[in-house]
Amino acid sequence: MHHHAARLSYDAPDNTATPQHELIISAAAMAPRAAEAISLPGAGPVTDFGTLLANNTPSSPYSQGLNGVQQVDNYLFINILLAAFLGLLAATLIYRWLHMLNAHLRLLLTMGAGRLQDQRYWMYNPGSFWPSVKKNLLYAPLGKTRHNKEVQLSKAISVGTLPSRFHTVLLGLYLATNVGYCLALTWRRENEFSVIAQLRGRTGSLAAFNLIPTVLFALRNNPLIPITRVSYDTFNLLHRWCARVVVLETILHTICWAVNIYESGGMKQIHVSLATSTSYQWGMVATCALAAVFVSAFGPVRHAFYETFLNLHRLLVLLGLIGVYVHLEKANLPQLPYVQLAFAFWACEWAWRTLRILYHNVSRQHGITKVTVEALPGEACRVTFDLSRPWRWQPGCHVHAYLPAFALWSSHPFSIAWAGNRPRAAPLVMEMEKMPSINSSLANTASDRPSLTTRDSTFTRKSFLGVPTIATIAEATHRPENANIALARDAAVTTVSLVMRARTGMTRKLYDTAAASPTGTITTWGAIEGPYGGHESMASYGTVLLFAGGVGITHCVGYVHHLLLQCQAGTSSTHKIVLVWSVPNTEALEWVRIWMDQILKMDGRREVLRIQLFVTKPRHRGEVISNTGSVQMFPGRCNPKTIVEKEMVERIGAMGVTVCGPGAFSDSVRAAVREVVTEGAVDFVEEAFTY
User: Fold this and answer.
1) Can you give the residue ranges of the FAD-binding FR-type domain (predicted)?
2) Which of 65, 304, 331, 678 would be 131's cystine partner, CB 3.0–4.6 Å?
């Protein structure tokens, strides 16, 4: 072990000695003895070289083993890269802890109905530096506005989204350091092939180490997510770029090996080396598998065939990791622990995920989780999971839904629209706020479409738009008298409801099946995995501004109800909630009607909650009428800048803004918040699934 560093860099097999190599050995003998004290991972000589046909070429000594590879430098750069990751983690933790401490103090000092005077201090920024950082770095898109709006080559081909300015800085530093480490070579060596061998060792070491963050950042149950409260969407972005670096370094590693081997004996030597070395064979398998991952993960391919891509992606990555493992293990290379750690992360996450799914969705008393699917107007489904065991819920979180009857083992992320307890009583007729009736075809939606109504249901009442509607079987089953979203600390949540907009694949098949049913409702079995996200409670803000685009309303409904419950209990600082929802037509209002009915019935909500509905594509003039109550409807597109500026002037205390919706809509809200972030205490939270 103590002499391993010198041997790794300079020793060569006896049968490949050359005059040049003897000179290198002599130089090594005269090298400073301090280097010998460095202890390196792995022990013993490198093995499984394969057969070398010629020993007398300049490249022969550097075509196999670790001859010419500077392992000491390799470990130095890897340690620097590790220190950079740990430094970034420490900085993120410090930022999060300070943010949480500030929010907690604000909540303690301002919660309750009679604390309006205390809110004034929190309305303003204590200085100008941090608001400027938020405006120009943390909240800033890469360019002027575009961030989550997809970059499209055509209507059918999407490349993906652009990283934010802060993420671009992080990724730029990561890429620059990896390039710099690869180029930090001893370029003045007399034998050019030794430089190639050095580059081969450097790229191989970096690729093996970068596998660790690549795998870790891809995991849904990445332990860094709850620790740092950084979204999975951000970690997924980092995962993709780490993976690209791994693939490029792997390909460069293989090219360097092939160049020296080719110079030793041409294509015949390459064939012989691959045929006689298990390590080389599996190394080539890993290179090909990872290269295939690189190509298949290209934006247009990934978005066009996502479900196929995901399954193929996992198989190719598994094959690539196995190839790297065998390549290192057969050759007795010291980078093997890196791959072992990556495998350990992946295996532990899958085991934890499996146990978690089974625990919440399978029990002796209730069997497997039952799922009720109800077709809704606007080509959407209300999907309610009746869980087998209680489940902890928090506003703003999402789950991955499994419906094997429609998508086998595949799962898809959805925001939780509603959560409650298992029904124990029959539902009651609900009386709603008296609003002026509007001449909308939504009033006749249920009666005109037999697939969306029950034949024997007689539950009727006013919706949150004042339109008479008919309760469906799903509502009668899943909306009992005591149904309510539990507080965040309450673990007794047994039903979880989602809204799935029919697109392609599973969601399209699910909607078509439910709509074809005589009652518009079907039952099946499935499972949910989660919850994920929901790190921001929003309860410490005096003013909460919620923007929703389309089905993104599911992310906001839970926040609204939960904040109102906390207002009633006196455990929230919130005195003003503004919900802004942009929908294509009034049919979409049916998606959350049964839950909005309950929200509008809550005590004290008139003093706290105001709802603004923007119908972008009304079918006729009478469909949208601007009301003067706490629920207002407007024709046309929503202008987030106008709304944010107005609420900024009329805000109570600090203001929290969150958005969930299409990319362009989210970008417009982000731009509006950036315009006012230096004028007062404003925080921005975005919910996005840019997979």
Assistant:
1) 363-538
2) 678
State the pLDDT at residue 464.
55
Same domain, 593 and 634: yes
Does one domain contain both 546 and 526? no
Q: Do 69 and 194 reside in the same domain of the chain?
A: yes
More confident residue, 404 or 9: 404
Same domain, 520 and 542: no
**577 and 616, same domain (yes or no):** yes
585 & 607 share domain:
yes
Separation CA 240–CA 689 (nearest Å):
14
Question: CA-CA distance, 625 to 100, in Å (whole number)?
Answer: 42
Q: Dihedral sign for Cα 196, 201, 206, 211, please.
A: positive
Whether the pLDDT of residue 140 is over 50: the answer is yes
Q: Strands 418-420 and 460-462: what pairing?
A: unpaired
**Is residue 157 pLDDT above 50, yes or no?**
yes
Tokens of residue 16, six digits: 């490949």
Domain that holds residue 544: 536-686
CA of 432: how far to CAs of 174, 319, 478, in Å?
Answer: 56, 58, 19
Buried-state track 512-542, b at ≥16 Cβ within 10 A, e below 16: ebbbeeebbbbebbbbbbbbbbbbbbbbbbb
- Indicate the residue among 499, 531, 563 that finishes a domain: 531
Task: Decide: 426 and 480 in contact? Cβ < 8 Å.
Answer: yes
Judge whether residue 302 has pLDDT over 90: no
Q: What is the pLDDT of residue 267?
A: 93
Question: pLDDT per residue over 311-326, tens digit each?
Answer: 899 999 999 999 999 9
Alpha carbon distance 231, 226 (integer Å): 9
Record the tokens describing residue 149, joined without a space: 């709006």
